[in-house]
Q: What sequence folds into this?
């Protein structure tokens, strides 16, 4: 039997599923099965998958039921001792499974190994770095403050731990990964691989783009998590809420720009300020967010132009640095 089961829930993923599967097939660790749960796709997702020839791929098709149900369906079909979930538009670096498995084997008390995340756009271009937090052991209180695993495509988990917790909560419309990681952290140790191994694709059509739904689900997850461990300091709840609304504000200020998202960002920013005890120290950051909201509300086209110009400048800077690092002809360095 394969040691690892990789589970990909796929719904209308024809544009990205091939690259996602290839990032699994190209892993340096090869003793895995790849379970794809086709969640009632209406496009050519299934056709794209069946064109990929690899005996480790197993495809199961169901009527559409959502990501939570699809993950659980894959979990109960998995035969590996370890399980890792991967969204159908995200990517892994080739060393992801090998590094995480090694970490679990070397830390026998840990049942969850996680890595760092960076964010890419729909064209797989780098957008921004993730939080890159390195905590180990009992991470419950850290995870309450912020979901530093960041997405559902991150950890490698002992299957027995997932089965013990009955899988993902089907009642949640969003934040189901954060809820799962919290429930795991309440019982088991985590171990970190301090390296970027998950590339999370930002998409206007992703579940996390529905900000109102995400806010409601996250508040539900937080309430339940604090009730599960009453000994957790109550002061932490304000920090959790501040971090949540900071995240939602920044999420609302991502493309595409429109007035509806600007109004949502204003609401989230207000809640962020209310819950942030260090609001005075972060006043400049808050004012920058407020300025961006105002521009997005009244001049969304101008905001898009400014950000595109900034991105092009950053790309040029990175290219120049790369040329210097590899000794590009004509490049020079200045030493002290």
A:
């Amino acid at each position: 039997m394969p040691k690892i089961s990789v589970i990909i829930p796929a719904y209308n993923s024809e544009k990205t599923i091939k690259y996602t599967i290839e990032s699994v097939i190209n892993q340096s660790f090869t003793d895995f099965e790849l379970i794809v749960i086709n969640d009632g796709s209406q496009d050519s997702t299934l056709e794209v998958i069946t064109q990929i020839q690899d005996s480790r791929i197993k495809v199961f098709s169901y009527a559409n039921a959502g990501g939570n149900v699809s993950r659980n369906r894959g979990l109960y079909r998995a035969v590996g001792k370890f399980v890792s979930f991967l969204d159908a538009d995200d990517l892994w670096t080739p060393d992801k499974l090998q590094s995480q498995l090694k970490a679990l084997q070397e830390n026998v008390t840990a049942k969850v190994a996680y890595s760092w995340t960076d964010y890419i756009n729909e064209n797989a271009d780098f957008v921004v770095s993730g939080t890159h937090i390195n905590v180990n052991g009992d991470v419950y209180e850290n995870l309450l403050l912020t979901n530093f695993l960041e997405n559902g495509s991150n950890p490698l988990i002992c299957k027995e731990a997932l089965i013990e917790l009955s899988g993902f909560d089907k009642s949640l419309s969003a934040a189901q990964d954060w809820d799962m990681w919290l429930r795991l952290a309440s019982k088991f140790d985590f171990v970190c691989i301090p390296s970027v191994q998950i590339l999370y694709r930002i998409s206007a059509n992703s579940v996390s783009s529905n900000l109102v739904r995400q806010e409601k689900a996250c508040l539900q997850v937080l309430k339940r998590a604090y009730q599960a461990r009453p000994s957790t300091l109550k002061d932490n709840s304000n920090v959790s809420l501040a971090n949540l609304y900071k995240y939602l504000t920044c999420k609302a200020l991502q493309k595409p720009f429109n007035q509806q998202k600007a109004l949502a960002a204003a609401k989230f920013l207000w809640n962020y300020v209310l819950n942030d005890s260090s609001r005075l120290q972060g006043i400049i950051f808050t004012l920058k967010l407020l300025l961006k909201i105002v521009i997005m509300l009244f001049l969304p086209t101008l905001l898009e132009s400014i950000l595109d110009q900034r991105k092009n400048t950053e790309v040029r800077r990175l290219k120049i640095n790369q040329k210097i690092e590899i000794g590009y002809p004509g490049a020079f360095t200045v030493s002290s």
Summary: The chain has a mean pLDDT of 88.
